[in-house]
Design a protein that fits this description.
By secondary structure, this protein is mostly helical. The protein folds into 2 domains: 1-30; 62-346, no CATH class. The chain has helices at 2-31, 33-43, 51-83, 86-94, 98-110, 116-128, 133-145, 148-158, 160-183, 192-199, 211-246, 250-253, 263-271, 278-290, 295-307, 310-316, 322-346.
Length: 348
């Protein structure tokens, strides 16, 4: 019996060591993504400064970054699920009330400076772990739209009042939109495989699971979930790279002038198909403001680009039905329109 226990302890230690080595390797790989993307583009001999160069560099950088993040997050959620069954997780979060859960999820989004596609892996992990649907949407909206990098840049470019207003209204959109979606009780519009994961039994007695088994649960989650959606991730990033490299910004400034009531819904429609993170779009925001665009119109455009990107919808399609994606877009777009019109009225 002692020999068996010693053997199990050795296996557990080896599994933990393997995870630590993999984490160190992942961090080292992440630190080399930027030079790797430059090397790829240089190897393809694409002329610098061209739209094709920008699109290729974007794709070469974001593809390994998002896939790496997806694997790490899904692995972590798989390990967490070995401690808490989906039902227990739901009870724990909903015990505080959905409103409090929406606030916590949106606040977490502030300190996670992800673009919309990078936030999707976390969204998938939360949904799969049984976190309430509306709470997960609050995180999905806030993570790309409001973060410390965006706020810092806004503060430096247009002042603390605008940065603070953007923080308040950005969080408001994330919290209210997530709450509204949660109250609609649309969990049955998740894809069938996600519902099966959420409803899966908790497994063996939690106290009987060894560290090695918990790690194996994380590995199994990566094999299952990443194996289902990796091609959607690459397709979404490819679409984002093309948009990032080929959509002109000068055209946008011509329809963002002050006094045009239709400019806010117009830029939301234009912004939804685009793709960028908040830090990447803020220099565009500065340029548009310098060309005379209205502040509320520009911020509505920024919110739609970061919170409702077309590549994000492609990736989410593997998890959500088309009806649920349509509800998500409608609720968030309505919040963004309200913010845009309000900013234009306040800062006319």
């Amino acid at each position: 019996m002692r020999s068996l226990s010693h053997s199990d302890g050795t296996k557990d230690a080896s599994a933990i060591l393997g995870v630590l080595v993999a984490l160190v390797a992942s961090l080292a790989l992440y630190s080399q993504l930027e030079p790797f993307s430059r090397w790829v583009v240089d190897a393809l001999a694409i002329p610098a400064g061209t739209r094709l160069h920008d699109a290729a560099a974007f794709f070469a950088y974001d593809t390994p970054k998002v896939l790496l993040l997806l694997a790490l997050v899904v692995f972590g959620m798989g390990v967490v699920r070995s401690f808490f069954s989906p039902e227990r997780t739901r009870r724990m979060l909903t015990g505080r009330g959905e409103g409090a859960g929406n606030v916590l999820a949106a606040s977490l989004g502030i300190v996670t400076p992800f673009c919309s596609c990078s936030a999707v892996p976390l969204f998938i992990g939360f949904v799969s772990a049984g976190v309430p649907l509306g709470v997960t949407f609050s995180f999905l909206i806030a993570a790309p739209m409001v973060n410390e990098v965006a706020l810092g840049l806004l503060f430096g470019l247009v002042g603390w009042r605008v940065a603070l207003a953007y923080l308040v209204f950005g969080l408001g959109v994330a919290i209210v939109a997530g709450w509204v979606i949660g109250r609609m009780r649309l969990e049955h519009w998740l894809e069938p495989w996600v519902r099966e994961v959420r409803q899966a039994p908790g497994g063996p007695d939690l106290g009987a699971i060894t560290p090695r088994q918990r790690i194996q649960a994380g590995v199994s989650a990566v094999q299952d979930i990443v194996g289902r959606i990796w091609h959607w991730v690459i397709l979404g990033i490819a679409a984002g790279a093309l948009i990032h490299g080929y959509v002109p910004t000068d055209m946008l400034a011509t329809i963002m002038g002050k006094g045009s009531w239709w400019s806010v819904p117009a830029v939301v429609l234009i912004g939804v198909p685009m793709y960028s993170n908040a830090a990447g779009i803020i220099p565009v925001v500065e340029a548009l403001l310098g060309k005379g665009a209205a502040l509320g119109t520009v911020l509505a455009f920024m919110m739609s680009v970061t919170a409702l990107s077309f590549p994000e919808m492609i990736i989410l399609r593997k998890v959500l039905s088309l009806r649920l994606i349509a509800v998500f877009i409608g609720v968030v777009a309505t919040g963004i329109l309200v913010v845009g019109f309000l900013f234009n009225a306040l800062f006319a």
